[in-house]
Amino acid sequence: MRWTIKPKPKQEDIDALADALKVDDLVAQLLLQRGISTYEEAKNFFRPQLEDLHDPFLMKDMDIAVNRIEEAIANGDNILVYGDYDVDGTTAVALMSSYLLRYYPNVATYIPDRYDEGYGVSFKGIDFAEDNGFTLVIALDCGVKAIDKVAYAKEKGIDFIICDHHRPGTILPSAIAILDPKREDCLYPYDELCGCGVGFKLIQALGSRRGETIDDVIYYLDLVATAIGADIVPITGENRILAFYGLQVINQQPRIGFKAIIDQINKKELTITDVVFIIAPRINAAGRMKHGQYAVNLLTETNMDQAIQFAAEIEKFNTDRRGLDQEITIEALGQIQENQEEEGFTSVVYKDTWHKGVIGIVASRLTETYYRPTLVFTKSGDKLAASARSVRGFDVYNALEGCADYIEQFGGHKYAAGLTLLEEQYNNFKHKFEKVVKESIDPQMLIPEITIDTVIELKDITPKLMRILKQFAPFGPGNMSPIFMAEDLKDTGYAKGVGKEEAHLKVSVVQQGSHRIDGIGFNMGDKLSLVTGRKPFNAVFAIDENEWQGNVSLQLKLKDIK
Description:
Blueprint: E1 2-5, H1 11-21, H2 25-32, H3 39-46, H4 62-75, E2 78-83, H5 87-101, E3 107-110, H6 123-131, E4 134-140, H7 147-155, E5 159-163, E6 177-179, H8 195-209, H9 221-230, H10 237-252, H11 256-262, H12 272-290, H13 293-300, H14 304-338, E7 347-350, H15 359-370, E8 374-380, E9 383-389, H16 396-401, E10 409-412, E11 416-421, H17 426-440, E12 449-452, E13 454-455, H18 463-470, E14 484-491, E15 496-498, E16 504-510, E17 517-521, E18 537-548, E19 551-561
Parallel strand pairs: 1-12, 2-3, 2-4, 4-5, 5-6, 7-8, 13-14, 17-19
Antiparallel strand pairs: 8-9, 9-11, 10-11, 14-16, 14-18, 15-16, 16-17, 18-19
Helix pairs in contact: 1-2, 5-8, 5-9, 5-13, 8-9, 9-10, 9-12, 11-14, 12-14, 13-14, 14-15
């Protein structure tokens, strides 16, 4: 692990912000490191306001999209809400369809089959629209690169409105409207929305035409917050506002589908991390193991008994997913270990029987283990399909562009992408991908890095500090949970391995006679020898609360020790 301490802001800037906010230097420093330098910026950070959301009509083509939907409603046309099968796509479809159905009945949903149709807009989906009399398709979290599919639909008299957040190609589809803040000609002030976020901007615009205010659509922010967390988009700017209020909805007035999931877990208040690791995997499991429509059904259900049944089905999908995920990860790790001598700057593995629904999770596991840009392939029909994951700082999407001669289709983001190719191109692609990455990556990126906000002394870790740090949430890219380093710590003799096979490390430390504080390091049991015998050590950690038998105490959530 590389430990990198963020540069400390100028002391005069720390003093000025600390004085303006009446906080100590540590809090002022953490804020400055997040780009917050004034009282007004701090106010917006700690107290996000719905009225600070941008006018949706600032987005390119928004007025066209709203006009076309209003025209469809006036004419009594059938509207098909179409979305990808992952969390962002299914939450977006649930959001758009349930909003429109509030006042217009001729609306249906369509999620493509991961195995039969693959990612994004499909010819089969368009044929379904034609066969069932749909003349308008609203595509969410996909479509911005579906040039041939949209052209095919146009020939059949079917219009498309695309709500996407992926990077467009040089040519845009011939859709009626393309809402995508990443369009070069779109001047919308914030371009990091997720697909569900773009869908929310569309219902916000539709609502404004109907005389609705933001208070009339706040109910849908639970879906948006879930998509923001699951899609790992920055929790900055507008996303921070949407996630902040979305979490409030989840915790205070969750939709029936969420309540059916939450009621199964012993958790009073969910954070964005809980949403990512509890709610999102279950929604995702539907599309991975069976069909994404199961997730849409759960998220739009209004009857609690029915929702409980849907949630039980999805819980089984998630259990099955976990088993497959573990099994395939072991096989994939075995492949990498067998080929260790020839492994270089990338990890690329393939087996034709691996379940397509979990290869993305497996790619993430392999990246965590070997810390290389990683691709996991499986057979999908007459082609191979892969999920790509990257390491911090390296753009895997750009690397795939460099291999485009061997790829049939690809799309995604800087850190996660998907692709298909012909089986006979697998070896050519594998060698080319290794070459492209080798020539473009900084070797330092292949060493896992922990970014540390600042050095801290144990005496400064107080309940008051914890109360302030909690107000930094929701955490995510662009606003990660503060990470600290403390030096010259000594365990008080309580250090031990805990958990299954003593995989985790439990410590109780002091520093220069300070008060004692406990710490837990998950999957750090192998570092026990570094802290026993009162040997001094440095630690990197987040500050956490530990609740046990009704008592709450502060603890160090260890990331690494040296």
